[in-house]
Specification:
The protein is of the alpha+beta class. It contains eleven helices and twelve strands. Strands 6, 7, 8, 9, 10, 11 and 12 form a seven-stranded mixed β-sheet that branches. The chain has a five-stranded antiparallel β-sheet with strand order 2-1-5-4-3. The longest helix has 41 residues. The radius of gyration is 35 Å and the shape is elongated. Bound molecules: adenosine-5'-diphosphate.
Length: 403
C-alpha cells in the first residue's frame, strides 16, 4: 500500500517537473519571438528596400551581430538573415563602429563560401545607423587591386628595361668623345650606339603597343581583315632580318580567309611571331607560316626548327619581360614583350594563341581567330569545314590578296 502511494507521489512529482519544463521552454520561445519582433521593428523604414536595390553586398546587424536585413549579394559572403555574422573579422569591424559610434573602413580578406574557396580582398565600411544597429557595406576589390598591381609592376619593369639601353648610349657617347682622334674607334662606337638606339626605339614601340592593348577592352577600328594581307605585311616587315639571319621563310596553306578586327594589330602580332622564329633559328634553316581553317576558326601557324622552349618556360613566355633564353634574347635585341603583345592582341580579337615546342626541335606558335565571311559577294567564300575533315590547301583567290 505504501509502495503504491510512493509510486503515485513520484508520478505526480514527475508531471509537475515536466509541466514546469514545458512552461519554461514555451516562455523562452515567446520571449525570443517578442525580442525578434522587437528587433525587426528596429530596422528603420526603407532600409530593407534600399538593401534590396543594392548591387554590393550590404547588411544591417544588431548588437549581438545578428543580421536583420541584407542585400541579395551579401549571401555570397556567408551572411544570412536571422543568423549571427560568421566571419570574425566582419564581427569585429561592426563592433568597433558600434562602440566608437562612428563609421570605419577596412580592407579584409574574406572567403566567398567555405574553404577552400578563394579569399577575396573586400573593402568594408561599417556605419552605426542607430544605437543598436550597424550598416555594413562590402565591395569586392580583388580585381581592382590586381590591375593596380599589374600597372605598378609594368611601370617598375619598364623603367628597369629602359635603363640598360639608355645607360649604354651614355657610355658609348663618352667613349666616342674620348676616342675623337681615332676615326676607326669612333665609327665602331657609333655603330654600337646605333644598335642600342634601335633597340631602345623597338622597346619604346612595344611598350606603347602593349599599353594601348591593355588600356581598353575595345578595338577601335574594327573591319573585315584579309588574312592573306596580314601574312604578306608581317612577312614583308621581316625580310631584311630573315636575309641577315640566312633563314628562309616559307608561306603556305589556305588563302582567301577573313576575320574581323584591326589589321595593324594582327599584323604586328603575327610579325612578332615571325621575328622570334627567325631570331631563335639556326642559320640556313626554314621558318613556315601556314594558314588553315579549323571549323570556323582561322589558324595561322608559325613553325621554326630553332632552339625550342623548355616545358617549364612554355606558360611563362607570354608574360611581360619574360625571357626563356636571357642571353640569346638580349643578343637578338629581344625586349621580352613580343609574345605578351601577341597574347593581348589575339585575345582582343576573341581568339587565342597556342604553343607547341621542344628544346632543340623547334616551336610552333598558332594564332586562332574566329572566321568571318569574305566581305565581297564576288569573292569565293571558304566554307567552314568540320575538324575531322582535311583542310584544303588549294589557294582560293580573294579580293585584295596581294600575295
Ligand atoms: P623577346 O623579345 O625576348 O623575344 P618575346 O616575348 O617575343 O620576347 O619572347 C619571350 C621569350 O620566349 C624569348 O625571350 C625566348 O626565350 C622565348 N621564345 C619566343 N619565341 C621563341 C621561338 N620561336 N623559339 C624559341 N624561343 C622563343
Amino acid at each position: 500500500m505504501e509502495h503504491t502511494q510512493l509510486v503515485l507521489l513520484a508520478l505526480l512529482a514527475g508531471l509537475l517537473v515536466g509541466a514546469a519544463i514545458v512552461g519554461l521552454v514555451v516562455g523562452a520561445l515567446r520571449a525570443r519571438d517578442r525580442s525578434m519582433a522587437q528587433t525587426a521593428v528596429d530596422v528603420p523604414e526603407g532600409v530593407e528596400a534600399m538593401l534590396d536595390a543594392m548591387d554590393d553586398p550590404a547588411f544591417v546587424c544588431d548588437t549581438s551581430s545578428t543580421v536583420l536585413a541584407l542585400s541579395p549579394a551579401a549571401e555570397v559572403f556567408g551572411v544570412h538573415a536571422g543568423e549571427v555574422i560568421a566571419a570574425e573579422e566582419l564581427k569585429r569591424v561592426a563592433r568597433v563602429a558600434r562602440d566608437t559610434g562612428s563609421g570605419i573602413s577596412e580592407n579584409l580578406r574574406l572567403r566567398r563560401g567555405a574553404a577552400p574557396a578563394e579569399a577575396r580582398l573586400v573593402a568594408v565600411r561599417a556605419t552605426p545607423i542607430s544605437a543598436r544597429l550597424t550598416l555594413l557595406v562590402l565591395r569586392d576589390i580583388t580585381e581592382r587591386e590586381r590591375v593596380e598591381e599589374m600597372r605598378r609592376d609594368f611601370v617598375a619593369n619598364t623603367s628597369h628595361e629602359l635603363k640598360t639601353p639608355v645607360g649604354a648610349v651614355g657610355l658609348l657617347a663618352e667613349a666616342i668623345e674620348s676616342a675623337a682622334d681615332d676615326p676607326a674607334q669612333v665609327r665602331h662606337f657609333a655603330s654600337r650606339m646605333q644598335a642600342e638606339v634601335t633597340r631602345l626605339a623597338s622597346l619604346v614601340n612595344r611598350i606603347m603597343s602593349l599599353s594601348r592593348l591593355q588600356a581598353s577592352d575595345e578595338l577601335r577600328d574594327v573591319r573585315d581583315v584579309s588574312i592573306d594581307e596580314v601574312v604578306t605585311a608581317a612577312l614583308e616587315a621581316y625580310t631584311v632580318q630573315a636575309d641577315a639571319a640566312q633563314v628562309t621563310v616559307v608561306r603556305g596553306g589556305t588563302k582567301g580567309l577573313w576575320v574581323r578586327g584591326e589589321p595593324q594589330i594582327l599584323t604586328e602580332a603575327l610579325g612578332n611571331l615571325v621575328a622570334n622564329a627567325i631570331a631563335y633559328s639556326p642559320q640556313g634553316s626554314k621558318v613556315g607560316v601556314g594558314v588553315k581553317l579549323d571549323d570556323t576558326v582561322v589558324e595561322i601557324a608559325v613553325t621554326d626548327r630553332g632552339i625550342g622552349i623548355p616545358e617549364t618556360d612554355q606558360h611563362r613566355v607570354f608574360e611581360r619581360f619574360y625571357r626563356a633564353d636571357q642571353a640569346r634574347s638580349r643578343r637578338t635585341g629581344g625586349t621580352g614583350l613580343g609574345l605578351s603583345i601577341v597574347k593581348h592582341a589575339v585575345q582582343r580579337h576573341g581568339g587565342e594563341v597556342r604553343l607547341w615546342s621542344r628544346p632543340e626541335r623547334g616551336s610552333t606558335f598558332t594564332i586562332r581567330l574566329p572566321m568571318t565571311e569574305a566581305p565581297d559577294l564576288d569573292t569565293v567564300r571558304p566554307k567552314p569545314r568540320r575538324k575531322s575533315r582535311k583542310t584544303s590547301t588549294t589557294p582560293v583567290p580573294a579580293k585584295g590578296d596581294t600575295a
